[in-house]
Write the structure tokens for this entry.
Amino acid sequence: MFQTILIIALILFATAIGIVLYRIIKGPTMPDRVVALDVIGVNLISVAAVVSIVLNTRAFLEVILIVGILAFISTIAFSKFIERGVIIERKRDR
């Protein structure tokens, strides 16, 4: 019964990722696309956690941490790019 619930959860996460991919492609504005990318990151973390439970292993815990860090950094970088037009500002004293 527990395995069935986990498989259903994986199917729902995959469906959510598919819906969000549509938002990335057809999103009306860039902030909508950035939020959709962040939602995909959160869903990938959830998928890795459920797969780790299904396979009864701890090997995916590092994957969860890496995907979380990458999702956070990419969200910050995209939002800075939308706001200022550049990601890394360089101040030159010439």
Q: What stands out?
A: The two ends are 69 Å apart (CA to CA).
